[in-house]
Amino acid sequence: MRSNATHFILLFIIYAAFVSLGLPDSVLGVAWPAMRRDLRQPLEALGLITIVLTACSAISSFASAWILKRLGTGPVVLLSGLLTGGAMLGFSFAPSFAWLLLLAIPLGLGAGSVDAGLNHFVAEHYSSRHMNWLHGFWGVGAIFGPIIMGTAIAGTANWSGGYRYIALIQLGLALIFWLSLPLWKREPAVANHAENFVPPVFKPFKSWTPWLAASLYLVYAAVEMGVGLWTMSILVDARQIAPLKAGLWISGFYGAIMTGRFATGLIAERVGNRRLVRYGIVIAMAGAFLFAMPNFPAALSLGGLVLIGLGCAPIYPSLMHETPRRFRPEMARTVVGRQVAFAYVGSAIMPAAFGLLAAKAGLVTVMPGVIVAIFLLLILSEILNRAT
Fold this sequence. Notes:
Layout lengths: L3 H22 L2 H12 L6 H17 L1 H8 L1 H21 L3 H29 L2 H27 L4 H21 L1 H6 L22 H30 L4 H29 L1 H19 L6 H15 L2 H12 L2 H33 L4 H22 L1
């Protein structure tokens, strides 16, 4: 019988792993202006790095069920820490842009499998509360990454020093993951888990519901990334708001996602995953309508941006935690991997689609596009609820 102490020590390590997952995700955009100047690259070269990162993350997410079955969650977490820490250390010494593209491969591969693996592990072994808090800790890493990089660039170090600092944190966490390997083996498997089932990497599902469960993440990514990447342009270019003030409101959006996930964890077990998703979508819809109305009082309209963040907060983790309850144990791990992969694909494709929409019809069309995506998310989630 496992001890509660071991159970919660492992939970703390899982939280640390998601902090380490969030750290690299948010630093590239902060460092890029200085990086491209030193490496003599055009502004759009950032897109090439993003494509490599996203593609490798999606590939490793798709293959995560196969990898996790053979290695186990603990070794995959350790391998991820080593890959991401080593890749970011390599970034700090990269002599050319070509090296950045090469190093983006292990950085992306390291993120994808551990993202899917930890989501599945927490969904199976812990409550909905801990799933929401897990994604809240991703936000902690995503917030501290830019702070570390920005401090390094503003101080005596440069972007190379910033990447070295973050790489050392990642490698330090990898040491903790290595020391924790015995704890993962003590955590009991879920009852009725098909231990001998090895899911093929790309075997198609016979049912359409697993693909619907994955497609929800593509639509969710369209909402979160569409708002996160295009709000600055909407506020500064279309609404003539000062960049500093606009940046603070965008921070409020991401801060609302993080704090909303920690707060949701307190009520998740009483409310239930499906209702949390439904309530979150409705709140995000209300916020999107408010933010889409530039003629409303500024405080009300900009408050809608924070409301979108609060609405987004429970959607990703609650959908993820519900997956082992919708599907058979031998299928759930594969579904989680494809959900994470679709989220990466959506994060790469959908913001670009909103960009094309803005270029053709103006920035004022971005938020209506986000509203359509939120409404589609509501319809698809309700269909999935009825089908499972």
